[in-house]
Amino acid sequence: MEALMTQPVETPMTEHITTPVEMLGRWVETQGDQVYLRQPIDGQYKDFTWQQVQSQVQQIAGALRHLGFQPGDKIGLLSKNCAEWFIIDLALMHGGYISVPIYPTANADTINYVLEHSGAKAIFVGKLDYWAEQEAGVGGELLRIALPYETMPAQYHWEQLLELGEPLVEAPLPTAEQIMTLIYTSGSTGKPKGAIQTFHAYSETCKAVVRDLKTTPKDRLLSYLPLAHITERVAIQGSSFYSGSQVAFVESLDSFVDDIQRARPTVFFSVPRLWSLFQKNIVDRIGYKRLNMLLKIPILSSIVKRKIREGLGLQHCHLLGSGSAPIPPSLVTWYHKIGLNISEAWGMTENCAYSIINYPFDASKIGSVGRAVEGCEIKQADNGELLVKSAGLMSAYYLEPEVTQSAFDDEGFFHTGDLCEIDADGCVTITGRTKDNFKTSKGKYVAPVPIERKLAQDPHVELICVIGAGLPHPIALVQLSEGAALQPREEVRVSLQQTLDSVNPHLESHETVDAIVIATDEWTIENEVLTPTLKIKRHVLEKQFNNLVDGTRGRVVRWQDEI
């Protein structure tokens, strides 16, 4: 294990770090009887005070000791977000166990791979939409513990654990270099890799988030993006540990809007796809032309903006964020126009997801992901790749020493795989992925992401992927937005054709897009076109479409079923 833990980045290994469990104790002392977690059940909140959370944390940690688990054992966690997710995570930290969270949408093969690769000895299973299909990935020999929700069969249940054995009140404080968790990447280019994150990396990153975003015990957070992803684990869960903020959860997709209204968040993070859906709902209610007209009338403009914020349940927010995948600059500009400033951020599993952010929001930097935060160093490699170094960098990829070694340069900077531009103000614009560039049949290399960003300006586009390896010219694959899918095909075709005709003249001859092909099958996590964080798996679409579109010529817009 020592070889695997070789850390290319210097960290203060002997420094004492304040862990989330220690912070829990501090909040119990100062605001123990105040509500920390709010879990909606049948439309009503079940509240957990800080004191109640600590009591359950100690009891769960003690129950795991009673069941024979020892510090250093790895324990999986497969569930949608809920109050118990936080409690389990804190209990695993308190007991010295290593958590292995798994996306609640993961298929059986992925679940099986992560559990076997990590060497997990048990798994908590909770709120799941497809547990019957996922159960085969868990395996019958692994000890299962069920959260208090409908889920797969388990040997132990939540209420049993709350009465099993003695609470673990006193436990050794973890050291800075001690492994806290294995975070498996979303696997957009192959098998997921397990990033080893220490208590030092996680704690320092969470403290940086609270420092920069200035969250306090008065803030209200909403947890609904997957906690198995490092962004939610740091930005929401982690910041609550270090700011004392209250956290509410979402009960279901159907109750999502009501849950936001009920939670009244003061900080709200989302993903581009949801921001796009919010936009559609606003426009559907008001209409583009009418909205633009109302915003031009000073007296009415402020009223309209307030009503929109209230309709979204975001009227109390002092911070709005977007991450996980690139958000079209046109969408950020549109929200800015209606008085909602969305700060785009950039990060990775490997650096605890917090490195660069456009905050405080700067409208002149829309299209960039902002500047490196305090304590994060960035630089650009000769090939244009973004390299980062921060306290949040992982120690290694679990059981992959060669991959780990190649991921860092001689100075301890991590190779992100993202291509970038850095302007005179230090703001970073992501221009693509080093592995995304492809060679056409003419032997010319094409960088697809800049082309995608230009074509994505069309409001009918929900998701876009430019492919073309081995083809004469690139092809743009498009998934329409929900509203566009309901419009007559000819209207959509005309708009996309105009967009294509306006973009192509500004591209190099070998980059010009032959055609836009509109997918008739939705791109989802379930059909493995999207990762759990809603990134497009380019290689999957290339495999599906390369033969289908080979030879398509004429700068045209076509539906998949027309080819």
TrEMBL record:
UniProt entry keywords in alphabetical sequence: ATP-binding, Nucleotide-binding
MF terms (GO), sorted A to Z: ATP binding; long-chain fatty acid-CoA ligase activity
Residue ranges annotated for the AMP-dependent synthetase/ligase domain, each copy included: 26-398
GO CC term (a single one): membrane
UniProt xrefs under InterPro entries: AMP-bd_C_sf (IPR045851), AMP-binding_CS (IPR020845), AMP-dep_synth/lig_dom (IPR000873), ANL_N_sf (IPR042099)
Catalytic activity: a long-chain fatty acid + ATP + CoA = a long-chain fatty acyl-CoA + AMP + diphosphate
Record's protein name: AMP-dependent synthetase
